[in-house]
Specification:
It is an enzyme of class 2 (transferase). This protein has about 475 residues and is of the alpha+beta class. The protein has two domains: about 170 residues, no CATH class; about 230 residues, no CATH class. It is built from 14 helices and eleven strands. Strands 2-8-9-7-6 form a five-stranded antiparallel β-sheet, sandwiched between helices. A hairpin with a 2-residue loop joins strand 4 and strand 5. Helix 4 packs across helix 7. It is globular, with a radius of gyration of 23 Å. The two termini are about 30 Å apart.
Length: about 475
């Protein structure tokens, strides 16, 4: 497990070299063995793993750093944020030659802590592990969790909570906010270094581009469109899409006040800190475009020395976002109802279904399972879905007119629509059990089902029920 320190070697302006704070009694609570094997990490004793991934001892080759970045938080720019409770241990190269960042979260104060204690409570660490692994299994681009280590210490978050450190694995921790940090300081040399680093790490095919900054912007936009389309496919609500939580790699990063959509409504918000609904389920594409515009602003000096010319080139890419996203979004929704090679009229069918789901307050995940059942068994719709009867007839007719075989439609729907998601009430239940008992049995059982979200296992039905109140009063919290 020999680490390199490529990002740390970029220079002092990019980060602070600082060791994690040692903890009192590190104990390994969760270890992601399949991920460890993929990364080529040879498992050692649980005690040694706990020592490494609590931050009490450096991994071989590691030079821990806290990364500098800025960010728009709910639309308001903060010129200096940075890793206030995280330490990037270094980069690991897997057996296929891919590079991955290993980062500890909840590992102590840095100069970016802004009066925070730099610690993490157990529950948010568990949420990051559970949700990131669920997203990975759902086929959504995401960072992942390697370990959760309990610290034997208490942290105060309105009340006393057990502390933990979670290890995150990401293809990098470059964010829109990283570029904003140097743009705010008019450090064009550092911006150029970031562009080179991002291309080398994530977009090597752009290495010979005549305009590397513009090519990078275009590539990142495409990655973000793919990411948001996946979020909407499975019903994921990030909850805090600030520019410092927008990864250049196109991976889902930071699982703070995230949640899953139950009853379909594009205005759904669960985050306790999103009082205006800025990051509602249906707003995520719009906010993504806004975030890409902020990235474009940082790159203008590198796109063209002539400010007006640079602005025109960047604006052209941002202007194309809406059209690109609409095509990706409609293609995704067509796949959810078994239609390949979508045609223009299918858009009306898709929109009508979503409007019916909203007006009848139908569960997002269950609706597509019910639709698939009408193809497989021809059985009548369950009572709560009877409002879809006319639409279903229209949909079936469309499939016939397009000569789409029933089996082909069913197979496409089965690959696109999960049978189980990390429903909010089950997530909260297992987190509470671990926090109260220190045992992970319930957590492990839930995660085992979430690892196969497109298959029906003997225990899948234990986690498919919807909450009694339809998540009407559900709230998520940042946990920092």
């Amino acid at each position: 497990m020999q680490l390199s320190n490529q990002y740390a070697n970029l220079g002092e302006a990019f980060s602070q070299t600082i060791d994690p704070e040692s903890v009192a009694l590190p104990a390994l609570l969760l270890w992601n063995q399949p991920l460890a094997e993929y990364l080529g990490i040879d498992a050692t004793s649980p005690k040694q793993l706990a020592t490494y991934f609590a931050g009490n001892e450096r991994l071989p080759g590691s030079t821990p750093i806290a990364c500098a970045y800025s960010g728009h938080q709910f639309g308001h720019f903060n010129p200096q944020l940075g890793d206030g409770r995280a330490h990037l241990l270094g980069e690991l190269t897997d057996k296929q030659g891919n590079q991955w960042d290993l980062q500890l979260k909840g590992s102590g104060r840095t100069r970016f802590s802004r009066q925070g204690d730099g610690k993490c409570a157990l529950s948010p660490a568990l949420r990051e592990y559970l949700m990131s692994e669920a997203m990975f299994a759902l086929g959504v681009p995401t960072t992942r969790a390697l370990a959760v280590v309990t610290t034997g210490e208490q942290v105060f978050r309105e009340e006393t909570k057990p502390g933990a450190v979670v290890t995150r694995v990401a293809s990098s921790h470059l964010r829109v906010g990283t570029f904003q940090y140097f743009a705010a300081r008019q450090d064009h040399e550092a911006l150029s270094t970031l562009v080179d680093f991002a291309i080398a790490r994530h977009y090597p095919e752009l290495a010979d581009s005549k305009n590397r900054a513009l090519a990078l912007l275009d590539a990142v936009i495409d990655k973000q469109i793919t990411l948001i389309t996946h979020w909407l496919r499975v019903g994921f609500i990030h909850g805090v899409m600030n520019t410092d939580n927008t990864a250049i790699s196109g991976e889902t990063i930071d699982f703070g006040p995230c949640a899953m959509l139950g009853v379909y409504h594009p205005g759904t918000v669960y985050s306790s800190i999103d009082s205006q609904g800025r990051y509602a389920f249906g707003n995520q594409a719009t906010i993504c475009r806004w975030n890409m515009a902020r990235l474009a602003e940082t790159l203008l000096p590198l796109i063209d020395e002539d400010e007006e010319a640079a602005l025109a080139k960047a604006e052209a890419l941002i202007a194309n976002f809406a059209g690109k996203f609409e095509q990706a979004y409609l293609d995704m929704n067509a796949a959810k109802i078994g239609i390949t090679k979508r045609k223009a009229p299918d858009g009306d069918l898709i929109i009508e279904l979503l409007e019916l789901m909203q007006s009848h307050k139908l569960d997002y995940t269950q609706t597509y399972q019910v639709l698939a059942d009408t193809l497989s068994s021809g059985s009548p719709l369950p009572a709560e879905f009877e409002g879809l009867e006319e639409w279903v007839n229209k949909w079936h007719n469309t499939l016939q007119q397009r000569s789409i075989e029933t089996n082909d439609a069913m197979q496409l729907m089965a690959k696109t629509n999960p049978v189980v998601i990390p429903r909010n009430h089950h997530v909260e239940a297992v987190l509470q059990i671990v926090e109260l008992t220190g045992r992970t049995d319930a957590f492990d059982a839930f995660l085992e089902v979430l690892k196969q979200p497109y298959e029906t296992l003997p225990t899948t039905s234990n986690y498919q029920d919807t909450p009694a109140d339809g998540d009407q009063y559900y709230q998520t919290f940042c946990g920092t």
